[in-house]
User: Which sequence fits this backbone?
C-alpha cells in the first residue's frame, strides 16, 4: 500500500457513484481540468486501482434469484488455476472473490428458482470435488449498495440502491435489450457511439437508456475498485440474529446504512441473516463497528464472524446468457 492523495480518492468516489457521469461535469465538481481528470482516470485504471466499470442491473427484474455460496478449499490437492478459471467462466456466477478466515471463497450465483440453483451447485461440487472441502449456501433476499462514502470528506448517506427482493418481472423491446447488452459490456460508452452502432438518433438513444433507468432495470453505473490500493482493509461481517421483529431488523439495517465504512449489506436466508461489507483504515476501526453492533443489538445477535476479503475475480450483475435468450 502506498500514498494515496485526497484528489485520487475523490475521483474514485465519483466513479463509484456514477461512472457514466460526463467528464466535464465531474471535472467541475472536482475543480479539475477535463484533460487532467481524463489523464488521472487512465492512470488509475492502468495501475489497477480501478479494476473495471460496470452497469448495475437488477437481475430480479428478469425473474432471477441470487444465492450465496461460501467454500472451504482443500489446499493440499488440485489445480487451483483451472479451478478459478472454470468458476470465472461459469455464466451463472456473478460474483467471485477470495476470502480469509474460515472460508476461502465467496460466490454469488443467479438462477430462476431454487431447483436450478441446486442443479448448478451440484455441478460445481461434482466437477471440483477434489478442491472443495466444505460449503455453506444461503438465499439472497435483497442487497443494499451504499457506495464508498468514506472516500469523500463530505459524502453522506443519501439512500441505498436496492437490488433483488420482490420485483414484478418486466419485458423489454429487442432494441432495449441490445442497448442493455452494450451498457453491460461497455458501461462508459458514449450516447453518440451507442446511437451510431444501432442507427438511432442520439436523443432516442438517451431516451431508451433513461427509460431503462426509470423502470428500475438499470440501478446505477459504478466501478470495481481495489481497496488495498487506497489503504483500506475490506472485510465482511457475518452475523445471525434471533427473535428479531421486523422493526428491530430495520433498526439493524438503519445502523449499518449510517456507517460510512459500510459499502454493502446483503440480507440472506440461511446460515447468516446479514452480510455487511466494510472498508476500514485498520482493524481498530473494524473492531469499533463490531462493538457498536454488539452494544446496540447484542440481545438479538447470536453469532458474529468476520472474514477479510482479498482478490476479486469477477463482478457482474446479470448472467451473459440473458442476452442470447429469446
Assistant:
Amino acid at each position: 500500500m502506498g500514498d494515496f492523495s485526497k484528489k485520487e480518492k475523490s475521483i474514485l468516489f465519483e466513479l463509484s457513484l456514477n461512472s457514466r457521469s460526463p467528464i466535464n461535469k465531474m471535472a467541475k465538481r472536482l475543480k479539475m481540468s477535463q484533460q487532467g481528470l481524463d489523464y488521472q482516470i487512465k492512470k488509475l485504471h492502468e495501475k489497477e486501482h480501478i479494476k473495471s466499470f460496470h452497469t448495475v442491473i437488477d437481475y430480479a427484474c428478469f425473474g432471477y434469484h441470487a444465492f450465496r455460496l461460501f467454500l472451504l478449499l482443500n489446499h493440499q490437492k488440485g489445480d487451483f488455476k483451472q479451478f478459478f478459471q472454470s468458476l470465472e467462466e461459469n455464466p451463472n456466477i456473478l460474483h467471485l472473490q477470495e476470502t480469509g478466515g474460515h472460508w476461502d471463497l465467496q460466490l454469488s450465483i443467479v438462477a430462476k428458482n431454487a431447483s436450478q440453483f441446486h442443479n448448478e451447485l451440484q455441478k460445481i461440487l461434482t466437477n471440483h470435488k477434489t478442491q472443495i472441502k466444505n460449503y455453506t449456501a444461503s438465499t439472497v433476499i435483497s442487497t443494499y449498495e451504499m457506495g464508498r462514502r468514506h472516500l469523500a470528506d463530505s459524502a453522506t448517506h443519501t439512500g441505498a440502491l436496492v437490488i433483488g427482493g420482490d420485483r414484478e418481472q418486466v419485458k423489454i423491446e429487442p432494441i432495449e435489450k441490445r442497448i442493455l447488452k452494450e451498457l453491460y459490456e461497455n458501461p462508459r460508452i458514449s450516447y453518440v457511439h451507442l446511437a451510431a452502432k444501432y442507427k438511432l438518433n442520439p436523443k432516442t438513444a438517451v431516451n431508451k437508456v433513461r427509460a431503462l433507468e426509470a423502470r428500475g432495470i438499470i440501478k446505477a453505473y459504478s466501478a470495481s475498485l481495489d481497496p488495498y490500493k487506497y489503504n483500506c482493509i475490506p472485510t465482511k461481517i457475518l452475523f445471525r440474529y434471533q427473535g428479531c421483529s421486523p422493526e428491530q431488523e430495520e433498526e439493524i439495517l438503519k445502523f449499518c446504512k449510517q456507517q460510512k465504512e459500510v459499502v454493502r449489506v446483503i440480507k440472506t436466508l440461511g446460515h447468516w441473516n446479514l452480510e455487511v461489507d466494510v472498508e476500514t483504515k485498520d482493524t481498530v476501526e473494524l473492531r469499533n463497528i463490531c462493538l457498536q453492533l454488539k452494544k446496540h443489538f447484542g440481545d438479538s445477535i447470536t453469532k458474529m464472524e468476520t472474514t477479510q476479503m482479498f482478490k476479486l475475480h469477477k463482478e457482474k450483475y446479470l448472467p451473459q446468457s440473458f442476452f442470447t435468450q429469446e
Notes: The mean pLDDT is 91. Residues 145 and 264 are 5 Å apart (CA to CA). The chain has ten helices and eleven strands. Residues 171-214 form a domain with the Arc Repressor Mutant, subunit A fold (CATH 1.10.10.10).
